[in-house]
UniProtKB/TrEMBL annotation:
InterPro entries: SAM-dependent_MTases_sf, tRNA_MeTrfase_Gcd14. Keywords: Methyltransferase, Transferase. This is tRNA (adenine(58)-N(1))-methyltransferase catalytic subunit TRM61. The lineage of its organism: Eukaryota, Fungi, Dikarya, Ascomycota, Pezizomycotina. Its EC number is 2.1.1.220. GO terms for biological process: tRNA methylation. Gene3D superfamilies: 3.10.330.20, Vaccinia Virus protein VP39. SUPFAM superfamilies: S-adenosyl-L-methionine-dependent methyltransferases. One of its GO terms (cellular component) is mitochondrion. Residues 339-360 are annotated as: Disordered.
C-alpha cells in the first residue's frame, strides 16, 4: 500500500506543468525600454561602430547630422529593434554591456578599461553566493581611487549574488503630485530611505570605494547608478577622503581592533605610504592589490614592505596590456661582493691590506639590497600598467 504522501506527490507531478528554466539576465534580454534607461544607437548599415550612448527621457530628442530621433520613439521598443531618424537613417537599439557602458560614458578621469578590470577581479578570486549569508562577517572590499567607477562596477557585479534582492517600495504618488504624500507622519522619501537602510544592514558583501576628490566621487556615483537602472548600485558605499583616515574612522565606529577588510585595491599615487595602516584592517590571507602606471612605483612598494618588515608576502607582479598579460620578476636581492686584488710576490702587506678591504666591503654590503625588475618569459604587450599583488601574512 502506498503512503498517502507519495500519492500526493504523484498527483502534484501529473497536474503541474513542467517548470521552465529562468536566467538572471533574461529580464534584460527581452524587456521593453523605459524612461530613464541607457541605450546605444548604432546605424544599421555600420554595426561595427561604437554608436551613441544616450539616456532616455520621454521629452528629449537626440540630434546629429543624420537627423533627429525623439526618445519617445525608442521607449517601448525592445533590444535589437530599429528606429528611424527624421532624415530616414535607420538605427538599431542596443542594451549596452558593462564593457560598452564603461567605454562610452562621459569621463572626468581615464578609467581602467574592461580587459584590465576583468583580470583584476579574476585575480582577487571572489566567490560568493546565497550561502554567504551564513558567514559570521560580511565580505568587504576597499577600493581606494574610485576614479571613473569602472572597477567599482565590476567589483559590485562580482559580489552581487551574496546580497538579498533589493527592497522595493510602492509609489503612491501620481504624476500630478509634485510633493510626497505623508503616511503616519513619514513621507514616501522617508519610508524609502528607512527601507534602504534596513536592507543595507542585511548585506553580506560590500564594496567601499573612496576617492580624495569629491567631484570625482560624485561623478562615479552617477556612473554606477546609471548602469541598468542601478542594479549594482546598492552594493557600493561611496566615501571621500584619505584612505588612512577612513580606516581609522571605521575602526572607531565599529569599536573593534579586529580586521574587517577581505581585499584592498589601491589605484593612487604613494600607495606604499598607507601599507602600515592597511595591515591591521586586512584579514590574514587577504589580497592587497596595487595598480600603477610605472614599474618603479611597484618597486617602491616592494622596498617599503621589506624595509619596514610589514606582514605582506608578494604574490605576483604582472603587466597589464591590451592583448595579454606578462608577469614580472620584482624582488630584492643581496649582491655578492667580489674583490679583485693584485698581490706582489714575497710581500704579505698586500695580502693583509686586501683582506682588510674585503672585510670592510662585506660589512658594508650586508645591509645593501638591489632590486631586480625584469619581465618573465612571455608575450610582448603594449601599453597598460602594472599590478602588484600581496597576501596579508599573520606575521613577518
Amino acid at each position: 500500500m502506498r503512503h498517502p504522501f507519495a500519492l500526493t506527490r504523484v498527483a502534484l507531478q501529473t497536474s503541474r506543468p513542467a517548470a521552465r528554466r529562468q536566467f538572471a539576465g533574461s529580464a534584460f534580454l527581452r524587456r521593453a525600454f523605459e524612461d530613464g534607461d541607457v541605450v546605444i544607437l548604432r546605424e544599421k548599415r555600420d554595426a561595427s561602430h561604437d554608436g551613441t550612448l544616450i539616456k532616455l527621457q520621454s521629452s528629449e530628442s537626440t540630434h546629429n547630422h543624420r537627423g533627429t530621433i525623439p526618445h519617445s520613439h525608442i521607449i517601448g521598443k525592445q533590444p535589437r529593434q530599429v528606429v528611424q531618424s527624421s532624415k530616414g537613417t535607420t538605427y538599431r537599439i542596443h542594451e549596452p554591456t558593462l564593457a560598452e557602458y564603461v567605454r562610452l560614458t562621459p569621463r572626468l578621469v581615464t578609467p581602467i578599461y574592461p580587459a584590465d578590470t576583468n583580470l583584476i577581479v579574476s585575480l582577487l578570486d571572489i566567490h560568493v553566493d546565497a550561502s554567504t549569508a551564513d558567514s559570521t562577517a560580511p565580505l568587504e572590499i576597499l577600493e581606494a581611487g574610485t576614479g571613473h567607477g569602472a572597477l567599482t562596477l565590476h567589483l559590485s557585479r562580482a559580489i552581487h549574488a551574496a546580497n538579498p534582492p533589493a527592497a522595493t517600495t510602492t509609489h503612491y504618488r501620481s504624476a500630478q503630485e509634485p510633493e510626497d504624500a505623508v503616511y503616519g507622519g513619514e513621507s514616501i522619501s522617508d519610508l524609502e530611505a528607512s527601507t534602504l537602510e534596513l536592507w543595507k544592514q542585511q548585506r553580506r558583501a560590500i564594496v567601499h570605494t573612496l576617492d580624495i576628490s569629491g567631484k570625482h566621487s560624485k561623478h562615479a556615483r552617477k556612473i554606477v547608478q546609471g548602469f541598468r537602472r542601478g542594479i549594482y548600485y546598492r552594493n557600493v558605499d561611496f566615501h571621500v577622503g584619505d584612505i588612512s583616515a577612513w580606516i581609522a574612522s571605521q575602526r572607531t565606529s565599529r569599536r573593534t581592533e579586529d580586521p574587517f577588510l577581505t581585499h584592498v585595491f589601491l589605484d593612487l599615487p604613494g600607495a606604499n605610504h598607507h601599507f602600515a595602516n592597511i595591515a591591521p584592517a586586512l584579514h590574514v590571507n587577504g589580497l592587497l592589490a596595487v595598480f600603477n602606471p610605472s614599474i618603479t612605483q611597484i618597486v617602491e612598494c616592494v622596498e617599503t614592505i621589506r624595509e619596514h618588515k610589514m606582514p605582506y608576502l608578494l604574490d605576483q607582479v604582472i603587466e597589464l596590456g591590451a592583448g595579454c598579460i606578462r608577469e614580472w620578476d620584482v624582488r630584492a636581492v643581496k649582491p655578492r661582493a667580489t674583490l679583485k686584488t693584485e698581490e706582489q710576490p714575497g710581500s704579505t702587506a698586500g695580502a693583509e691590506k686586501a683582506d682588510q678591504a674585503a672585510q670592510e666591503l662585506a660589512k658594508d654590503e650586508e645591509d645593501k639590497w638591489a632590486m631586480i625588475c625584469r619581465p618573465k618569459v612571455g608575450h610582448q604587450v603594449v601599453g597598460g600598467g602594472f599590478l602588484g599583488l600581496w597576501r596579508r601574512m599573520d606575521q613577518y
